[in-house]
Structures are given as structure tokens and as C-alpha cells.
Specification:
Layout lengths: L1 H22 L4 H10 L1 H21 L3 E9 L2 E3 L5 E3 L2 H22 L8 E3 L6 E9 L3 H17 L2 H69 L4 H63 L5 E2 L4 E2 L8 H45 L3
Antiparallel strand pairs: 1-5, 1-6, 1-7, 2-3, 4-5
Helix pairs in contact: 1-8, 3-8, 4-5, 6-7
Length: 361
């Protein structure tokens, strides 16, 4: 009996050491041996999980995202650009009034509905109505989206009036600015004409001064040859010639510098005015075109289905299934090994107790 008890005690000590090593993560080979011992269990659980998830992927209906692109109250200008005039108010009205009322009305009437979410892509000026549905429910989604759009158009009369009034005010302001520029152009043209007449007058005066000086020179020559009372006239003539030459010099200075600078400034102002008029005329035409082509909220496209179904499908599902199957397989192996070890330890303890009880005192 002593030999039997010793034979039983040795395996218990060895298994206890193996258990401690595996729990401390020291002996990886022990874990590998356990895994190889239960390889069919591991492969069965892992493959079962993969097959089950893949089968569910084929059996369960796939959900897709259907999106209808909507342009809020806007316009089409002369260049064909489609602008948005009141995106925020239209989105608020759709989200808080139109869509909830439509869905509640259909639910009260017992008709099918799908949730409609509104999304505004950044810097796009559009509103996107999104609904999650099966592939065969595309017609229902289209019906819901178009019904929401129709209800929005019927209820946005006040918004359209406000936008139209805003555009009319902008058009009137642009028109008034253009008229102001035209009035300024007329004033500049008058100044330009006045400067041109002044230049002509000064040139004529210079011509007259030249003639006067020529006559004065002839008179002076005659007086120099005479004597008596004509000497006093010579002094007066000399003073008059000096005054005339001063006037001549002044006129030449004005014609050479001041008048050209004044005319150049007027011409530059006229060119700037013309440029501003061209810009303002374009603004007036653009505002007029926007006002004439103001459009209510309308759909840019029918509901478009997302390319891939929502959730995990295809390769992504297989990858997740492999990871999940591996984890569950390892868990099953560890659980079976632990249960088997626990049962063996209980059997060995019972056998040891029986052996000790059978030993004579």
C-alpha cells in the first residue's frame, strides 16, 4: 500500500507543477500540448462559428443606405451656377416640422414608414435625406422622400417670400449704386470738357499775347528812334510788356503742367468709374437673374443606394468570424481541459483517501 500511495503522489505533484507553470505563463509548450490534444474540439468550434456567421450573412436580409440629394431654396444665375439662398431655415423646417408630421401621419394611417435622417454635407449647400432599408424597399423610400419634399415645397411660401424680398432689396441697392456711378461719370465728363475748353482758351490767349508782343516790339522800335514826349510812352510800353510777359509765362506754366495733370487725374477717375460700372452692371445682372430664377426646394437626384450594405458583410464578416471563432475555440479547449483536470484531481483524491482508509492502523 505504501508503494501505491507513493505512485499516486508522484503524478499529483507533477500535475500540480504543470498547472502552476501554465497559470504563470511559463511553459508555453504545455499550452500547445493541451491545444493539440483538443485540436478537433478547437477546429470544430472555430469552424462552426465561421460557418454560422457566414450562413446568417446569406440568410438575413441586407440593409442599405438610400440617399436623396435635395437643394434648398436657391437660384440659377447667368453663368449657370446653382446657389443656395436659405439652407438653414429649410433644413430646420424639414427636420422639425415636415418629416415628423409626414411619418406620424403615415403611422396613424397604418402605412409603412422608414426613418428619415437629414444630413448637410460640409460646404456643399445641399441637404441629404438618408433612410436605411432593404433593397426591395427602394420604392417605399423614394415615396417617403418625395412626399417629404412635396410637403416642404407646399409649406415654404413664407420662406420664398422672405428670400425674394431679400433679393429684391439687393437688386435695388445694386441698381442705385450703378445710377450713382453713372451720375459721377457725367460729372467727370463735364469736368473733362471744362478742362479742354480752358486749354483751348489759354492757347488762344497765348496766340493773342504773341501778336500783342510783336506789335509792342514794333512800337518800341519806333519810340527809340523818336524824342520828346514819346519817351514817356516808351516807359509805359515797357511796363505793359513786362506785365504781358508775366501773363504769358503763367499761361505757359498752366498749359505745360497744371492742365495736363488735371486732365490726367480726370481721365484716371473716368477709367476707375468705368471699371466700377462694369462690376456693378454684372452685379445688377446677376442679382436680376437670381431673382428671376428663384427656385423652391427641389430634388437633385432620386434615392441612390449605397454600394455596400450596412454592417459587417463579405470579407469583413469572415475576418471577424475567424477572430471570434478562434477565441471561442480557445475558450472551449481551456474549459474542457480545466473540467477534465478538476475531475481527475477529484478521482485521484478519492482514490488516495480510499487507499489511506484501507491501510491498517
Amino acid at each position: 500500500m505504501g508503494d501505491k500511495a507513493q505512485a499516486i503522489a508522484v503524478p499529483e505533484e507533477v500535475k500540480e507543477n504543470e498547472l502552476l507553470e501554465s497559470e504563470n505563463g511559463i511553459d508555453l509548450m504545455n499550452f500547445v500540448r493541451i491545444l493539440m490534444r483538443h485540436k478537433w474540439l478547437f477546429l470544430g468550434v472555430a469552424s462552426g462559428v465561421v460557418v454560422a456567421l457566414v450562413a446568417l450573412d446569406f440568410i438575413l436580409p441586407r440593409q442599405y443606405l438610400y440617399s436623396t440629394t435635395v437643394r434648398a431654396i436657391g437660384y440659377v444665375d447667368a453663368s449657370g451656377y446653382q446657389g443656395v439662398a436659405d439652407l438653414d431655415n429649410v433644413r430646420t423646417q424639414l427636420a422639425q416640422m415636415v418629416v415628423p408630421a409626414l411619418l406620424k401621419q403615415r403611422e396613424d394611417q397604418g402605412e409603412e414608414t422608414r426613418k428619415i435622417q437629414l444630413y448637410v454635407p460640409r460646404k456643399s449647400g445641399l441637404i441629404r435625406m438618408d433612410s436605411t432599408a432593404k433593397e426591395e424597399e427602394k420604392a417605399l423610400v423614394k415615396e417617403l422622400h418625395l412626399a417629404a419634399l412635396k410637403a416642404q415645397q407646399e409649406g415654404e411660401d413664407e420662406l420664398l417670400k422672405a428670400v425674394r424680398s431679400s433679393f429684391q432689396l439687393k437688386y435695388m441697392q445694386a441698381q442705385a449704386q450703378l445710377e450713382s456711378l453713372k451720375f459721377e461719370e457725367k460729372r467727370l465728363l463735364q469736368d473733362r470738357d471744362r478742362a479742354a475748353r480752358k486749354e483751348t482758351f489759354f492757347q488762344q490767349e497765348l496766340t493773342a499775347i504773341d501778336s500783342t508782343l510783336a506789335v509792342a516790339e514794333e512800337s518800341r522800335a519806333r519810340m527809340l528812334q523818336s524824342t520828346g514826349s514819346e519817351a514817356i510812352g516808351l516807359v509805359v510800353l515797357e511796363n505793359n510788356v513786362i506785365q504781358i510777359r508775366k501773363r504769358q509765362n503763367r499761361l505757359m506754366e498752366v498749359l505745360a503742367f497744371e492742365l495736363p495733370a488735371e486732365i490726367s487725374g480726370i481721365d484716371a477717375s473716368l477709367a476707375e468709374n468705368k471699371s466700377q460700372q462694369a462690376i456693378q452692371e454684372e452685379q445688377v445682372a446677376s442679382t436680376r437673374a437670381r431673382l428671376d430664377n428663384l427656385q423652391p426646394t427641389h430634388a437633385v437626384s432620386d434615392p441612390v443606394r449605397s454600394l455596400a450594405p450596412l454592417g459587417l458583410h463579405g470579407l469583413r464578416l469572415i475576418f471577424v468570424a475567424l477572430i471570434l471563432g478562434t477565441l471561442l475555440g480557445l475558450g472551449s479547449v481551456i474549459a474542457v481541459e480545466w473540467i477534465g483536470r478538476y475531475r481527475r484531481e477529484e478521482a485521484e483524491a478519492a482514490e488516495a483517501a480510499a487507499a489511506l482508509a484501507a491501510t491498517p492502523a
